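In keeping with the milestone schedule agreed at the kick-off meeting, the structural modelling team has produced records for the first pair of proteins. Each record is given below as a sequence line and a structure-token line. The laboratory manager (R.T.) confirmed that both were archived under the project's standard naming scheme.
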Amino acid sequence: MLISWFTPSHFVILGLQIAFAIAHSGGAALRPWAEKRIGPRLYRIFFALVSLPLAVILIIYFFNHRYDGWQLWQVQDVPGVQIIVWVLSAISFLFLYPATFNLLEIAAIQKPQVHLFETGIMRVSRHPQMVGQIIWCVAHTLWIGTSFTLITSIGLVLHHLFGVWHGDHRLQQRYGEAFTLVKQRTSIIPFQAIIDGRQSLKWVEFLRPAYLGVAIFVGLLWWLHPLLLVATNKISW
């Protein structure tokens, strides 16, 4: 017998995450094969048409069910917690959307390519999106404190940990020895390569328009967050 707090939404969010992981990681694995047949731009468009709708559905469902299940803790009234959550969330976006990403390539305006980046946030961690996702999950799980949010966070973290292996594997296949050298100069764990002396921060690399865009995005998110929650609540999922 299911415990009363273990609502069906716990299974639904896991199912949505599995579907997104298969589409996203599967699409990435098919990239070399697909680009040879339909070209990089058309591949990018198809990849976005599959991944983005699934991501939007996942986000809306999470917003609408975030307080489902067992309330494991409640710290929203504790002084300082809200500021901590917002600061962690802002930091997470610096990792989730690093300046090394070429937005014109993502939008397929320029020819999408696979790069061996080793500058900016990549000096901190070779897999900044994994780091950003973990920080985001810690912040939101701390704030909401429900079993549904905890399970969602565990699923997201597991997907990104798989992405670490999968991403390294694909780059190794594509670049071989060149990627092996990059691995030797970088680290997965944040700041490890810097502490070890294999890497050094160059702050000038962070003075790029993309980081200004991230700062503006975080400010807009702060302002629009209540409206976003109201809008998603109107979708009866």
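The second protein of the pair:
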Amino acid sequence: MLRPVPGGWWLDGLLVAALAALTAALVWWSPLLDVDIAVRDWCDGHRPPPVTVLMRAFDYLGQGGALIVVTLLVTGWLAWRHRTVRPVIPTGLAPIISTLLIVGLKRWTSRGAPHHGSVRMFSHGPEEFYPSGHVSNAIVYFTVLAMLLAPYLPVPARRLVQWLPGVLTFIGTTYLGYHWFTDSIGGYLLGLLIARLLLRVPWRTVPLPRWLDRAPP
């Protein structure tokens, strides 16, 4: 598995502060809303069909259902191969933590989508788009996949698996107008925070009952 993140919580605190600052700015600093609208309008006016197809592929990298299925397949193979439930634990925790945080923030902020609802926060409409779940999912789930497959991948490939999908999903979902630009920023910050929390746990050495961890020392 990937190495745990270094000791100290300063970067995690910085991510929380950045997400809080972004959320506050979206409420009280209207020029940031103008940036969102300008990005949406530019993308709407520059969307040729070939690029649109590519961006849809990028956006699909953050599709939660598909990511869960892929992660479960990899987890099941590793658990069977090594006769241990260790891969199951982070795989099971990732969607729980992500869902609680993302859905909670979406319902609390109640922000519309670029083409449906209001750009303003706390609009109390049916739309709930801040932060972007797709972007956050791409970071969290691909970090879990990189962690599980770390013994089988060279370092460059592992880094690509861990970091590239989040960037591509950010570009795709914003370009297609599925999320405001700042939705994607918020999703990226939240995804990084969740990924770091998951990487802090020493999954390979967490004490487990012998019947759940039959792998040789």
